[in-house]
TrEMBL record:
The lineage of its organism: Bacteria, Pseudomonadati, Pseudomonadota, Betaproteobacteria, Burkholderiales. It comes from Simplicispira hankyongi. The keyword S-adenosyl-L-methionine does not apply. Belongs to the LysR transcriptional regulatory family. Residues 1-59 form the HTH lysR-type domain. Keywords: DNA-binding, Transcription, Transcription regulation. This is LysR family transcriptional regulator. The keyword Transcription regulation applies. GO terms for molecular function: DNA binding; DNA-binding transcription factor activity. Gene3D superfamilies: 3.40.190.290, Winged helix-like DNA-binding domain superfamily/Winged helix DNA-binding domain. PROSITE patterns: HTH_LYSR (PS50931).
Amino acid sequence: MDRLQAMTVFARVADEGGFAAAARALDMSPPVVTRVVAELEQHLNTRLLNRTTRKVTLTDAGDTYLRRVRGILHEVDDAEAAATASTRDLQGAVHVLAPPALATYFLAPLIPRWRVRHPRLMLDIATDNFVAGRVDEFDATLLVVPDGFDGNIVARKLFQGEAIVVASPGYLLRRGTPRQPPDLERHDFLRDAGLAARSGTRKLCLFPVSGEGEAHELTPPVVLQSTSTDVLLRAVLDGTGIAVIPRLLAQRFLATGALVHVLPDWILSRYTVYAALPTQRMLPARTRAFLDFVSDQVAEALAAQEA
């Protein structure tokens, strides 16, 4: 058994969620993929995957093994990149993890320019609403952390932003425009369930932008909650209610008039976006190229959101 190939096949099955999809991605036949994983499980004397007729999921042992395998495969990529760096352009893949909203609204628009600069270097972007515990699995992980965060991470600061209150013109025409934070308790609220879980409170707490004055803790009636920023954004654009959205996402809609900045003297929070790096790995050239590229593009990308 080729253990490196077996690890590669297993990781792809886990990523694709099935043997057939992994076979297509690897340009292998499904029976071969199935056999390779079965031989790996036999070699390890443990089941790595739960198989049903509809999907494939990781066992606890499989999840633990996958985390280690990703690191090994990345190290192999690093070694190959280092061996070829002096004789040819950077090539291979940069494995990036990001929250879905950052992947869609920040990273995705940068890809055409990335392709021009690094045509032989593929971006492999995975998304997860809870990225903090997976930093060591990827070359770079985009983290959104609150103002004043003091974590023990190796990271490059990319940009800062704010979470602001927004609503559609149609909604405000029907329900009126809040003038003070307490007015929100008479409005339909679209709640970010993930943010509520991370903050440990279901209350909406607004702070003055100036930093002076008291914060307001509010309990507006929740008509929709979701961990998906896209769902909340779509709902607020359709006039379902009032939402708190990162300015990065809201800015293009504010510029076109599709959204209105409500209570502009108040914010939910300030945040910083970092590119976090694995703590026990050397920084390969391809990862440095990604970090340099993203850092170079930040100002233009943020400006484009306002255009």
